[in-house]
Amino acid sequence: MGRRNSCTIYVGNLPGDIREREVEDLFYKYGRIVDIDLKIPPRPPGYAFVEFEDPRDADDAIYGRDGYDFDGYRLRVELAHGGRAQSYSYDRPSSFSNGRRGGVSRRSEFRVMVDGLPSSASWQDLKDHMRRAGDVCFSDVYREGGATVGVVDYTNYDDMKYAIRKLDDTEFRNAFSRAYIRVW
């Protein structure tokens, strides 16, 4: 029971006309979703419970979407059933090196480096881009000598090799900028 609770997040302040597919679109990038329970009362705002397979993905979703502006509604995202998760906006340590929030990172030996990222790139943006080549289990972005670089771990050797072949010299985009990246 504790595992299920730590995998389920509450998403509040949703627009009254939202559909389950839109909730899924908001959260699929954080990990495998097991269930979405959308509640639309007669008057907005609506709310939903989103259950992830892994509690670390639930933590990532909270970090990435709490306070997010969706269609003019500022989302409230927290752990479901008994309390708010760690409030990252207030007591966040000054730097993260593991790319995972509130859990043990899932690192692997199948690692690629990414150069040429725009300064606005986040570890989430990088993970989304690199998923085109396979199953990403870890990503991080950091500043090094005025440049923005990334590290991405894949779950297997084939995905890592495919990422180097397919994603090297591709256009990386996020909401703020775009740049051609090098993957090695």
Automatic annotation (TrEMBL):
Compartments reported by the entry: Nucleus speckle; Nucleus, Nucleoplasm
Family matches, as SUPFAM superfamilies: RNA-binding domain, RBD
Family: Belongs to the splicing factor SR family. SR subfamily.
Alphabetical GO biological process terms: mRNA processing; RNA splicing
Keywords: mRNA processing, mRNA splicing, Nucleus, Phosphoprotein, Repeat, RNA-binding, Spliceosome
Domain RRM: 7-82, 110-184
Main location per the UniProt record: nucleus
GO MF annotations in UniProt: mRNA binding
Name of the protein described by the UniProt record: RRM domain-containing protein
Cellular component GO terms held in the UniProt record: cytoplasm; nuclear speck; spliceosomal complex
